[in-house]
């Protein structure tokens, strides 16, 4: 199942109706949540953009109340949540392990538009600085957000080894 279909199913399970090709009067409006209905603009061209807009409206449905159109703080928080949900630092590592090295490859692998990835990198730079690390099951990775996104493996984690404690039992028996 593609990510967009997964989000559609999530909306349905939460009791939301999704209108996928709504003819908004303004080209600037890409999506809108009103009561229990999410409307997506008919002008959205790609599945990647459709995924981002639907995810953003789902976030508003979960985390917002009332009219937030004039509150940039709430929009920013929703956007930040979407960066983490659709990309995430671990997602960047997964893309790197899949062979992605260029920004367009990361965006394609993650199923998001390149401009959304660029916005996320700016947001991550503000939140984490130019360099941060992520510890995953595959090892420790460094993420650098400046001048462009780069991911490097720092070290591999070793599986924990089981240590036998026979030495301490021998001391107990000797006492």
Helix content: 40-55%
State the end-to-end CA separation.
64 Å
**Beta-sheet strand percentage?**
15-25%
How many structural units, i.e. domains?
A: 2
Order of helices and strands: HEEEHHHHHEEEH
What is the alpha-carbon Rg in Å? 22 Å
Please tally the helical runs, counting DSSP H or I stretches of 4 or more residues.
7
* Major sheet size, sense and barrel closure: 3 strands, mixed
Give average pLDDT, whole number: 87
> What's the arrangement of strands in the largest beta sheet?
1-3-2
CATH class annotation of the largest domain: Alpha Beta
Reported CATH architecture of the largest domain: 2-Layer Sandwich
| Total number of strands | 6
* Helix-and-strand structural type: alpha+beta
Characterise the protein shown here:
α4 packs across α5 and α5 (103-110) packs across α6 (114-128). This protein is 49% helix and 19% strand. The termini are far apart. A hairpin with a 2-residue loop joins β2 and β3 (37-41). The protein is built from seven helices and six strands. The protein has a three-stranded mixed β-sheet with strand order 1-3-2. It has a three-stranded antiparallel β-sheet with strand order 4-5-6, covered by helices on one side. It has two domains: 3-77, 2-Layer Sandwich (Zincin-like); 87-155, Arc Repressor Mutant, subunit A. Residues 166-175 have low confidence and may be disordered. It is an alpha+beta fold and 175 residues long.
